[in-house]
Amino acid sequence: MGNLLKVLTREIENYPHFFLDFENAQPTDCERDVWNQVNAVLQESESILSGLQAYKGAGQEIRDAIQNPNDMFLQERAWNSVCPLVIRLKKFYAFSLKLEEALQSLLHSLTCPPYTPTQHLEREQALAKQFAEILHFTLRFDELKMRIPAIQNDFSYYRRTISRNRLNNMNLNIENEVNNEMANRMSLFYAEATPMLKTLSTATTNFVTVNKTLPLENTTDCLSTMASVCKVMLETPEYTSRFNSEDTLLFCMRVMVGVIILYDHVHPNGAFNKSSKIDMKGCIKVLKDQPADNVEGLLNALKFTTKHLNDESTPKNIRTMLQ
Predict the structure, then answer these.
(1) 10 Å Cβ neighbour count for 288?
(2) Residue-by-residue DSSP string for 226-271
(3) What is the greatest pairwise CA distance in the chain?
(4) What is the mean pLDDT of residues 55-74?
(5) Is 11's pLDDT higher than 80?
(6) What would the pLDDT profile of 77-118 be if each residue is shown by its tens digit?
(7) Is 141:48 a contact under the CB 8 Å cutoff?
(8) Would you give the DSSP letter of residue 29?
(9) Using CA atoms, how far apart are residues 79 and 62, in angstroms rounded to an integer?
(10) How far is CA 4 from CA 27, 110, 229, 277, in A?
C-alpha cells in the first residue's frame, strides 16, 4: 500500500514504477468471480457505441409524414423507419441497467471491509480497471448522444404515433417490444442530457443508501482515491511515458472526470468544497493542459452534470476555471 500512498502524496520520484495499470491489469483468483460478471457486460460496450455512432435517425421520413397526414404511404414509411431505431434505443437502455448492476458489484468489492479503499485499489487492479472502463464507456456514450438530437425526435414520434393509435392497420408487433411502460422508462432515460452518467450517479447513490452498515467514507474515499491517482498519472511524465497507447491518456482523463462526478453526487458536500478530498483545482488544470478538442466534452461534463458546482461553498477560482 505504501507505493500507492506515495503516489497520492506526490512523493513519486522514488516510486516511478507504480500506477494503476489500466492497460494490462489481470484478475487474481480473488477477483475472478466479480471480474467475469462485469466482463460479460463490458464485452457489449463497443457494439453499443458502434450502434450509437451509426445512428442516423428518421428525420426526413418523419417530416414528410407530418406534412402529409393523409398520405398513408408516407405514414407507413416513417413508421417502418422509426421502429428499428426504437428497438436499437431499447437495447441501449437495457445496457444501462446491466451497467448499473455491474457498477454496484464493483463498488461492493472495492469498498468492503476489512481493507481500505486504497488497499483495495492496489490489491484489485483488474476490478479498478473495469470500474475505469465503465466510466470511460459512459462518458463516450454521453458525448455521442448529445450530438444526436434525432434520438429524442424519433422516440417522440414513436410515442405520439402509438398513443394516437393512428396506425391500426400497420404492423404493431413492436408494442410487444416497447410497450407504454417501457416507453415511459426509456423516455425518462433519453430526456437526460447525459443518460449513462445519470444512471451511474443514481446507482452509486443507491449503493450508499442500501448498504447502511458500510461507512459513506468507504465509497467516497474509493472515488477520491481514483481521481487522485488519475491526476497524478496524467501530470507525471514518468507515468504517461509508460502508456503503450496514446488513447490511454484520454482514458485516464475520462475516468478522472467520471469519478469526480460520482463523488460530487454521493458526498453531502460535493467535490468542489474546500473540505473535498479531491484536488479540483489540480484536476481541472490537468484537463486544461491538454488539447482543447480532447477535453471540451469533459470540462462540459464537470460544468453541467455535477451537483454542487454552483453551491456557495464552491471557491470562486474553481468556478472561474470552468467558465
Answers:
(1) 12
(2) HHHHHHHHHH-HHHHTT-SSTHHHHHHHHHHHHHHHHHHHHSTT-S
(3) 76
(4) 95
(5) no
(6) 999 999 999 999 999 999 999 999 999 999 999 999 888 888
(7) yes
(8) T
(9) 8
(10) 19, 15, 8, 16
CA-CA-CA-CA dihedral for 212, 218, 219, 224, to nearest 10? 160
| Residue 243, burial from CB neighbour count under 10 angstroms (0-12, 13-18, 19+) | middle
Cβ burial 15-44 (10 Å sphere, 16+ → b, else e): eeebbbebeebebeeebeebbeebeebbeb
Q: Distance between CA 239 and CA 242 in Å, rounded?
A: 5
Take residue 234 and report the three cell numbers written for it.
Answer: 496524467
Q: Is the dihedral of CA 178, 180, 184, 185 positive or negative?
A: negative
Place of cell 490511454: 248
The gap between the terminal CA atoms of the chain, to the nearest Å, is 38
Contacts of 322 (CB under 8 A, 6+ apart): 284, 299, 302, 303, 309
Are the CB atoms for 175 and 162 separated by under 8 Å?
A: yes
- pTM exceeding 0.85: yes
As given in the structure block, the three cell numbers for residue 102 are 455491474
Instruction: Report the distance separating Cα 142 and Cα 129, nearest Å.
Output: 20
Which residue from 269, 279, 263, 266 is spatially nearest to 321, judged by alpha carbons?
Answer: 279
Are the C-beta atoms of 166 and 75 separated by less than 8 Å?
yes
Q: Where does residue 14 rank: exposed (0-12), middle (13-18), buried (19+ CB within 10 A)?
A: exposed
